[in-house]
Amino acid sequence: MAKIIASVCCSHVPAIGAAIDLGKTQEPYWTRVFSGFEKSKKILEELKPDVCIVVFNDHATAFSMDIVPTFALGCAAEYAPADEGWGPRPVPVVKGHPDLSAHIAKSVILDEFDLTVVNKMEVDHGLTVPLNLMFGSPKEWPCPVIPLAVNVVLFPPPTGKRCFNLGKAIRKAVESYPEDLRVVIMGTGGMSHQISGPRAGLINSDFDKAFLDSLAGDASHAVNLKHIEFMREAGAEGIEMVMWLVARGAMNEKVVEKYRFYTVPASNTAVGHIILENAA
């Protein structure tokens, strides 16, 4: 059967993608950010995933305010990089895994999660930046990718608990797939940041680190955080951290922390990252 072998969570700051695309990764401002992901690339190389499920949020490229699904699962054969206003990023087309996607959709919907099935979608920096951070800048991504878009833009977003339980349902779906596949699930976005208003530039390292601690140990603290707590403590865009809970929910109750990295700032955000494997 297929198996989720690791959970990988990281920020998807658009400026990180711009630094990669413009060859600025070795500039003094960016050196610490990118050096923090060198170990991650080695870990992913050792894990050798056959498929990655990437939980991300769309930034008004695949979806507009006209239609905003709470959870949207990509079931296409491929996903082109989106034009976010300055042309598509110069990254490979993302190849999908339609068979596994369809299997997950069926299993999760029958588990009473009302996914939107998406057969055509372009993907933006929310998905491609984490792929760069984990796999570098190859000519082709090393494995197929299944995108799972979560609404964290239009109120109300799903709760952290709902996202965590979706992760459990995804794990059940993956483990009932008959092919022997090694699957990594990635939660993206966050950490604390606010991009507009009087609190623009807000970063709360204490909150971020407590959230990381919860993911690595007793997840109940992170799972039970309310929307207002995310927004008050981590800024309006800090709500993106509920997507990390999908990835955490897909793991065992007890996990082993393989690696953690945290730094501020990158653009006007905190950059957080953690890799978890199931405890024996």
If you had to describe this structure to a student in words, what would you say it looks like?
Helix content is 35%, strand content 21%. It has a single domain (3-278), classed as LigB-like (Protocatechuate 4,5-dioxygenase, Chain B, 3-Layer(aba) Sandwich), CATH 3.40.830.10. The protein is built from ten helices and ten strands. It is globular, with a radius of gyration of 17 Å. The longest helix is centred in the middle third of the chain and has 16 residues, at 160-175. Helix 1 crosses helix 5, helix 4 (98-110) crosses helix 6 and helix 6 runs parallel beside helix 10 (242-249). With 280 residues, the chain is an alpha/beta fold. Strand 9 and strand 10 form a beta hairpin. It has an eight-stranded mixed β-sheet with strand order 6-3-7-2-8-1-10-9, with helices on both faces.
Describe the secondary-structure layout.
Layout: E1 3-10, H1 14-21, H2 28-35, H3 38-47, E2 51-56, E3 71-74, E4 78-79, E5 94-95, H4 98-110, E6 116-118, H5 125-135, E7 145-150, H6 160-175, E8 182-188, H7 205-216, H8 220-223, H9 227-234, H10 242-249, E9 255-266, E10 269-278
Parallel strand pairs: 1-8, 2-7, 2-8, 3-6
Antiparallel strand pairs: 1-10, 3-7, 4-5, 9-10
The total count of strands amounts to 10
The helix fraction, in percent, is 25-40%
Separation of the first and last Cα atoms: 18 Å
Tell me the overall shape.
globular
SSE succession: EHHHEEEEHEHEHEHHHHEE
* Structural class by helix and strand composition: alpha/beta
Please give the count of helices: 10
Q: Which blocks of ≥5 consecutive residues have pLDDT under 50?
A: none
Please summarize the sheet with the most strands: 8 strands, mixed
Q: What radius of gyration results from the CA coordinates?
A: 17 Å
Strand percentage: 15-25%
Strand order of the largest sheet: 6-3-7-2-8-1-10-9
CATH topological fold name? Protocatechuate 4,5-dioxygenase, Chain B
CATH superfamily: LigB-like
Just name the CATH architecture. Answer: 3-Layer(aba) Sandwich
Number of domains: 1
- CATH domain class name: Alpha Beta
Overall pLDDT, averaged? 97
